[in-house]
């Protein structure tokens, strides 16, 4: 203990001018070094250590001597910084001028650092458990009180882009924090392709086939898709599923907030859908956009200032009048229908056969529709008698919670079934362009020549250029 | 008959247990708990009718002119003195008749002499205070009647009425001798310290309420940061080696936890500072050059549990707010083990602290809103003053009795202002 205090004072002596004196009577006093035997001794040790450091070539601290003399060895962490830190282990108590006894003293204190100042993995885990607990509490306070299941109805069919689209929907549904029932209606009958996606999702799924094949024009497709969705609703009625029905078209993109927001619906709700009218042709799109300055690419409810539903904002298809796609693989922009199904959600109890208490009167009786006696023409709004009673979601359509997109491949595009390739791929770029380890020494010469030949080989130079850069 | 009496007793017992449950659920917001400190459930008390305050009319050189010279005084953390005067001038507790007043308020802005950087210089403050007291002692008889024992002053500076920013010098000066008997409303509070006298009322520092309100984020944003702190660890300008600033505590936090992913600590001041606090569970409130800081107010407003690292600190309204239940107190010597301490707090305790913090009266008590609202810090100060009533007999001096020494203190302070 005495050794440590003497050691400390000598270390601090080294720090020099900013050191405040130990004398309590002179608070603003400067430092007056008093030569004492102990300080001379430590000065000698210090000189010895400096000499040794010069000889050895690295810093030899007198800490080693200290540890030679001391009996207690704690868990050391000695780097050059660690040395000074260990020296600061105990605080330097200074006399306080106050008359009252206070354990808090003014003056220079040591900076306490524990021997291993790094995170302890068990504590980190405990902290994460605390975080989870707090977040669970937050969810129960601010989130939904009694969450209802989400019933997603997806019409689909086998084509090149199906993998892209269904993977998106599948992942979105898998992330939903509520119970999900995924009803997949497939045009042209059930296939293994779709079944594999549906199976991968690890959700409760209902996969049914639909007898018709998906037609080739967008107009006809819309009709068939509507029929497929009605088929999905029939399944909801038969199975008496309880929850909120969402029309999750396979090419749409859904945000997570959508599923939180729809929990607020009571019977029939409408929300804003961002319409992404995309065509393969970038030039055309820009010219269209220049013309179409007003009108947002959104379909959704619109309210007056008091929040009451007064009308609907639909996507302005005027600018695209002459240039819309008719066939599925046309290069023009694909237009949405007047009212897309995906912008509406409904309570599954509306579809049940048995009369449910407090079923609203402003919704038509859907039995006729579901039994196939009627055709639904204008989209889901024809299911309500009084459209002004529809509930608005997402702060009356101001939040766009999902995006509508229709993009498909060329009609003649082929893709490997299940996206599994049976035989190895054919070579399109010879491998001597890549830096394989057994490449010949001729390679740099080859690339230099390739550099001069650059303008000629425009198409393939992309990959080659990148490889050249790696080599250089 | 016997069965019926048993049933009645059973029902009565149930009612009793339900009435003693302290938590209650407000409609769709966070359930909170009632806050009651050592003085009881006093946060929601209304001071109107319980006391009368007379506000001295000092010449504007003591207040208005100073403010005109530097309007930054309205937004810095010492602005409580200015807003207190404005509140009292239009409050129903104000009386224009000094004979019926229980408390007398002297509106002098001692913390408004700012450097170009915005920090207040306390060098002229003792002289200013002295000059103000001389003025009221000579123009009104109320000071001499009690030698200031029923007067209160707002001194929000670093070390209160010691009027210095350096702790050693402040301790050396001590509280201004003329204020020995007055009640001081100050932000500084540390037990067994010269600059905190018995009977002072500790208030929170001023934090701009509108600015904080405008940075609120939805309550469902999950709290994903475990510990949050933004501020200096080493004050390189004044204490380059460390050890003086914050008694080495802030430096210890940095050295021990700079690579710990649970601790989001840094010296950078991001624009999302307030939003980040709302995403954190614990917010560190270590001492700096003085033990108090606006971080406590910010932590309470944003629902982040304050981790107070300042030995013997006295927190605002300590008799009305049970800080032990709300915040986590860590001794300075235990700072290297802060992660162990914080991760070993049981989750129910954390949830309870968050519920207490969510209590709107708790948040209101930390603010100085313009105009004043019920339950805010102004009202808590008045409540504190009301709790000190009625004045003890010893407050009134016998004729000819003199207890204050008008010539005590450093010679420089005796010069007129």
UniProtKB/TrEMBL annotation, chain A:
Q: Which UniProt keywords apply?
A: Cell wall biogenesis/degradation, Glycoprotein, Glycosyltransferase, Golgi apparatus, Membrane, Signal-anchor, Transferase, Transmembrane, Transmembrane helix
Pfam family of the protein (one): Glyco_transf_43
Please provide, in alphabetical order, the Gene Ontology terms of the cellular component aspect for this entry: Golgi membrane
Which classification does the entry list for the species?
Eukaryota, Viridiplantae, Streptophyta, Embryophyta, Tracheophyta
User: Disordered: where is this region?
Assistant: 431-472
Membrane-related topology note: Single-pass type II membrane protein
Q: What is its EC number?
A: 2.4.-.-
Asked whether the keyword Mitochondrion is assigned, the reply is no
Q: Please explain the role this protein plays, according to its UniProt record.
A: Involved in the synthesis of glucuronoxylan hemicellulose in secondary cell walls.
Its localization reads:
Golgi apparatus membrane
What species does this protein belong to? Brassica campestris
**Which residues span the membrane?**
40-58, 65-87
**Enzyme class per UniProt:** transferase
Protein name per UniProt: Glycosyltransferases
Which terms does the record give in the GO molecular function aspect? galactosylgalactosylxylosylprotein 3-beta-glucuronosyltransferase activity; xylosyltransferase activity
For this chain's UniProt record, which GO biological process terms are given?
Answer: cell wall organization; glucuronoxylan biosynthetic process
Q: Name the family.
A: Belongs to the glycosyltransferase 43 family.
The residues the entry assigns to the signal sequence are none
Q: What is its main location?
A: Golgi
Q: Where is the composition biased (Basic and acidic residues)?
A: 457-472
UniProtKB/TrEMBL annotation, chain B:
Q: Where is the Exostosin GT47 domain?
A: 50-345
UniProt GO cellular component terms: Golgi membrane
Q: Name where it's found.
A: Golgi apparatus membrane
Q: Name one Pfam family in it.
A: Exostosin_GT47
GO BP terms: glucuronoxylan biosynthetic process; plant-type secondary cell wall biogenesis
Leader peptide range in chain numbering? 1-23
GO MF entry, a single one: glucuronoxylan glucuronosyltransferase activity
Principal localisation: Golgi
- Keywords assigned by UniProt, alphabetized: Glycosyltransferase, Golgi apparatus, Signal, Signal-anchor, Transferase, Transmembrane
Q: How is this protein situated with respect to the membrane?
A: Single-pass type II membrane protein
Query: Per the similarity annotation, which family is this?
Result: Belongs to the glycosyltransferase 47 family.
What protein name does the entry list? Exostosin GT47 domain-containing protein
